[in-house]
Amino acid sequence: MRKFFKVLCAASLLCLVANASESLDKIGMTYVKSPLNVPSIVDKFKGFYAKSFGVPVEYSDITSGAKQTQALASNSLQFLNCVGGTSVILAAANKADIKIISAYSRAPEAFVIFSKDQKIKSPKDLKAKKVAGPKGTILNELLVRYLALGGLSINDVEFISMGIPAAQAALENGSVDAALLAGPAAYNAKHSGLHIVTTGKGVITPVIVTATSGEFYKKHKDVVEKFKKAQDEILDYIKANEDEALKFTAEETGLSIEAVKSMYPQYDFSSKITAEDIKALEATQEFMLESKMIEQKIDIKSLLLN
Question: What pTM was computed for the model?
Answer without folding.
Answer: 0.85
